[in-house]
Amino acid sequence: MDQFIINLLFVGGSFALYIGIAIWAKAGSTSDFYVAGGGVHPITNGAAIGADWMSAASFISMAGLIAAGGYANSTFLMGWTGGYVLLAMLLAPYLRKFGKFTVPEFIGDRFYSRNARFVAVACLIVASVTYVIGQMAGAGVAFSRFLEVDATMGLIIAAVVIFIYAVLGGMKGITYTQVAQYCVLIIAYTIPAVFISLQLTGNPLPPLGLFSTHVESGVPLLEKLDQIITELGFRDYTADVDNKLNMVLFTLSLMIGTAGLPHVIIRFFTVPKVADARWSAGWALVFIALLYLTAPAVASMARLNLMTTIYPEGVDSQPIEYDERPQWVREWEVTGLIQFEDKNNDGRIQFYNEGNPEFAEEAEARGWEGNEFTYNNDILVLANPEIANLPGWVIGLIAAGGLAAALSTAAGLLLAISSAVSHDLIKGGFNPNISEKGELLAARISMAVAIVLATYLGANPPGFAAQVVALAFGIAAASLFPALMMGIFFKRINNVGAISGMLAGLGATLVYIFIFLGWFFIPGTNNLANTPDNWLLGISPLSFGAVGAIINFAVAFAVSHATEEPPVEIQELVESVRYPRGSGTATDH
């Protein structure tokens, strides 16, 4: 059967499943739309959280980043995993005890201020919109290859599917859809990994295969990979990180950004009891671990397969001729995500690190005039089955899995945006007397608008999926996480301090990102776009969220201690949230 037909069957079948679930679980009330009626089982909720969490960045881009940067990019694994533990231990049970629908509602009530609630809405929308760009961009990458359409058309298809099941079903439809999406994406991720681990190491368990012997060469897999890439001028795959400060800040930014992301936090309001929130977190960690333990192996094996594809006889011999390139390279070239430029007109694909001055003499001796092969990091996981010549059904499966990962997280983010607009802005501010039917309509309209905006921005992303997502985590880290932490654990923080801290943290982070990613040009200066030499203490824009969080905490504490204490009833409220003694249920206020 033709590969396109196989892909269409897998992707189309998964889409039909998602839409069918949405029709079955159609939301009939605001409680259904926001928190699935508050009656989701902890295991079901754990699987939904896993799908919500394992976005296009986790499924598609994370392994690509680790493949490109090796040990240095393991910060993504450490930050995202550690952040989820932080969320489960420090925030989720207490927020669930508080019993509100949304993060801005908690901040507004805890800091007894409608303005605080509105500032939280602004922070939530900025972080969530930035995050959803990465998901839509990832969906575009998957669609452009597997359905043989351009990225823009792929985004439109993805937007239509999300519109149907998210706008119709709300949190109730999204929850059960995400359970199905988790099943699809984890099977799609692990089956190719098992095949490839068997091919390269003889070990069917990818995490163990990563540290096993490479069958063909008889040396450890990582040692073989290091040998190949260093001989072509690339950095050691297992090399340590040069800038330890930046690594620590980036990991911290991802951790606290994870704990501050509203689309994950809202999941803990969908279970009946506080104890169920803790069980949900535990199950989610199990489900997430299945993918995160596999990702480093997928990354290493994909990088090795890519190098041996171009240098089939070894790096000491000539690279493959362009006319003899494998079919998978030809098919990905159509998408524009793989490019070849024959700089020395020899008809072969020279792939090496032309930026390494120590390799320049070797390259010149070989007659090479520059690197001729470039690829988008986001393709490696999706192309892995093709690189390894796996059966067509595995390729179709991973196509469905990549789209499931992107769509599941996008739906959760769009719901967070929708609830912030309808519940926190409209009902919480502009029209407190709106009927439940009117609020539900407003939620659906705001989600539809958010989908249109996300589709447009996904077609014009400011970076590849995981990079854009890292920015979203930095924004959440600098704005929402400190407010949540201080709201739960520090009775002395008042409304003026909380608002000042959120604005200071968000403002400092956005200014740093915009300047040093080149999105904002300062007259009279050279553009500082992505130039590490100009970064403050070598801190990357992707890492600045941790600094923004420190600014947020410092400003909030200073302003709060210079102004009046919170009312006694608010301090008592903090005590009741910190020491949960009952189950409580989410209520509509």
From TrEMBL:
Keywords per UniProt: Cell membrane, Ion transport, Membrane, Sodium, Sodium transport, Symport, Transmembrane, Transmembrane helix, Transport
Main localization, broad class: membrane
Residues that span the membrane, as ranges: 6-25, 77-95, 116-134, 146-167, 179-200, 247-269, 281-302, 393-421, 441-459, 465-490, 502-522, 534-559
Signal peptide interval: none
The keyword ATP-binding is assigned to this record: no
Subcellular location(s) of the protein: Membrane
Membrane topology label: Multi-pass membrane protein
Superkingdom of source: Bacteria
NCBIfam families reported for this sequence: Na_symport_lg (TIGR03648)
Family: Belongs to the sodium:solute symporter (SSF) (TC 2.A.21) family.
PANTHER family for this protein: NA(+):SOLUTE SYMPORTER (SSF FAMILY), SODIUM/PROLINE SYMPORTER-RELATED
Name by which UniProt lists this protein: Sodium:solute symporter family protein
Native organism: Marinobacter azerbaijanicus
